[in-house]
Amino acid sequence: MRFTRSSWSTIALGTASLLIAAAVATGFARNERRQNESIARAMTGGDPSRAPALIRRYGCAGCHTIPGIPGSDGQVGASLSDLRTRVYIAGVATNAPDNLVQWIVTPQAFSPRTAMPATGITEAEARDVAAYLYAQ
User: What rounded mean pLDDT belongs to the chain?
Assistant: First the structure.
């Protein structure tokens, strides 16, 4: 098949249009991510950027699937994807920032027979983890 100058122009224009659309979509995604992080910081008083190291240190990824954390494919606990859209935390506490922080620190206070262990995470660290989970 031979391409004419007009065909090449059409291909180039189509390719340029796709690249522009991809750049715009990427910009929107970045804006949404920044906005979600800002809201999560305000809700929890935590810093989501510190959470990935904490999630690894406390072994959260061994039991949970956590978005954005490589190797977090645990199947013991619930997936933590879209946690901000849920009504309850672990089916026992209303999904509110203070409840999530306290659940992360002392889950047995909400559900004495829960399989989730008390990890020794501090409240400040739990705020960072909560901010991360709400920002996703």
Answer: 89
